[in-house]
Design a protein that fits this description.
Blueprint: H1 2-20, H2 29-36, H3 54-63, H4 76-111, E1 113-119, H5 125-132, E2 138-145, E3 152-158, H6 161-167, E4 174-175, E5 178-179, E6 181-184, H7 201-208, E7 210-217, H8 222-232, E8 236-242, E9 249-256, H9 259-266, E10 272-273, E11 276-277, E12 279-282
Antiparallel strand pairs: 1-3, 1-6, 2-3, 4-5, 7-9, 7-12, 8-9, 10-11
Helix pairs in contact: 1-2
Length: 297
């Protein structure tokens, strides 16, 4: 009853002030407003009995604005709080909706993708994709090097599910020196960041002279990678060696002066560089020159 006692004292003080102030004929509304602002709307005597339970109280508190007890207008703070709750609800619903759409798209992509294993080291992505064109339109083909095997595996994505089902019949087809195995895929192909793809005819020509090299020993320097490829394949015009602390090996994009050198470099897959056998495949992205850092004025 602390709030009731407080308002009684304030009311008594207001009456005394009014009796002593005979010179003020009009009622001072501002003093009454100041008195009401001291009320605590969360005091138990102001909460209806139906919200006495803890959970019901919190639920009812958001429905009953503090000013509703006083019969006044909703304050800006109440409006901001309601808008915040509404935005947060809409944001959560939007995230759930986007998540469902993304999940449906990923599941559709998985149904259109097959997993191909036991791929010979000499087989390129273009040659593998050509094998499956009889089944339907191939929209993506990714060959991955397995560091624990002399063979590799790949994911082939079709434009529709019928192409993926037809591709299962090609299991056992000899490609290179080994018969390939074809199974339904359990994962979708991770799309390449479109900002990395070639943007012009010149960059597409650069891709034809570039290879993507993986499983590079972390102890190998950029100079050693360049020397390896120049000795075995030809002049290297640009090289980008990448890696981080989260992975045990590094990757590189190697651009040659001649397209023939890039073709020869594909035969280096499986050859040791340092303590690891490297994996080499055609690059889907060109090696762009680094932008110079702006000089401070």
């Amino acid at each position: 009853m602390a709030a009731v006692a407080e308002i009684s004292l304030d009311a008594a003080a207001a009456n005394k002030l009014d009796s002593n102030s005979k010179s003020e004929p009009e009622f001072n509304v501002q003093k009454l407003v100041d008195m009401f602002t001291k009320l605590n709307p969360l005091a138990k005597e102001f909460v209806p009995s139906r919200y006495s339970h803890h959970d019901h109280f919190h639920q009812g508190y958001h429905q009953l604005s503090p000013n509703n007890f006083l019969g006044g207008d909703i304050t800006a703070a109440d409006v901001n709080h309601q808008n915040y709750r509404r935005r947060r609800t809409n944001y959560s619903q939007g995230r759930r909706s986007n998540g469902r759409v993304h999940k449906a798209q990923r599941e559709d992509s998985i149904r259109r993708t097959v997993y191909v294993s036991d791929i010979d080291q000499q087989v390129t992505e273009e040659r593998l994709a050509a094998l499956f064109t009889s089944c339907g339109q191939v929209i993506d083909c990714r060959i991955c090097g397995d560091p624990h095997s002399i063979l590799r595996f790949a994911f082939v994505e079709f434009a529709d599910e019928q192409g993926a089902r037809a591709a299962l019949n090609l299991g056992g087809t000899v490609l290179g020196y080994y018969p390939v195995r074809v199974l339904p895929s359990k994962t979708a192909i991770l799309p390449v960041n479109p900002t990395f793809l070639p943007r012009s005819e010149d960059e597409r020509e650069m891709c034809s002279r570039t290879v993507y090299c993986t499983n590079i020993d972390k102890k190998i320097s950029q100079a050693e990678v360049k020397n390896f490829f120049e000795t075995a394949c030809g002049e290297v015009t640009r090289l980008r060696l990448l890696g981080d602390h989260a992975h045990s090996t590094r990757i590189a994009f190697v651009e040659f002066a001649m397209a023939e050198s890039a073709i020869i470099a594909l035969n280096c897959s499986g050859m040791p560089l340092g303590s690891q056998p490297i994996r080499v495949s055609p690059s889907k992205t060109p090696v762009r020159p680094r932008m110079p850092h702006p000089t401070p004025h």
